[in-house]
Design brief:
Largest sheet: 8 strands, mixed
Order of helices and strands: EHEEEEHEEE
Shape: globular
Number of helices: 2
Strand order of the largest sheet: 2-3-4-1-5-8-7-6
CATH superfamily: 2,3-Dihydroxybiphenyl 1,2-Dioxygenase, domain 1
CATH class: Alpha Beta
Number of domains: 1
Strand content: 35-45%
């Protein structure tokens, strides 16, 4: 199992407007916008990414962090072994990601996702 990326999510009433601020101030690019979430990145070799969002998608609460992994089933099993509550999923979303939410020991909502093949 390997962590492929960790992405913070910033709450925003108007994600595109907040994304505009980060584009203007930090020169980030906006490669993807779904209305309720906007992705910002540098586009360089070392990818830096920041999301602005009004929700977590599919009507869920907004997680404080998203962690992409290469084996969602292994991470889910490890989370369950640790006693971390799984609060959503696993589910394959309409936009193609397979993911689940967990609460860390401090109660933070974490989005764990895999962009690879969708498993059932």
């Amino acid at each position: 199992m390997a962590v492929l990326r960790i992405v913070p999510n910033l709450p925003a009433r108007d994600p595109l407007s907040l994304a505009g601020f980060y584009r203007e101030v930090f020169g980030l690019e906006l490669p993807f916008d779904m209305g309720w979430i906007a992705f910002l990145e540098t586009g360089g070799m070392q990818k830096v990414e920041l999301h602005t969002a009004s929700q977590g998608g599919s009507g869920t609460d907004l997680p404080v962090i998203s962690i992409e992994v290469d084996d969602l089933d292994a991470v889910e099993a490890a989370a369950r072994r640790s006693g971390a509550p799984i609060t959503y999923g696993p589910v394959t979303e309409a936009w193609g990601l397979r993911r689940f939410y967990l609460r860390d020991p401090e109660g933070n909502l974490v989005n764990v996702l895999c962009a690879g093949r969708a498993e059932s």
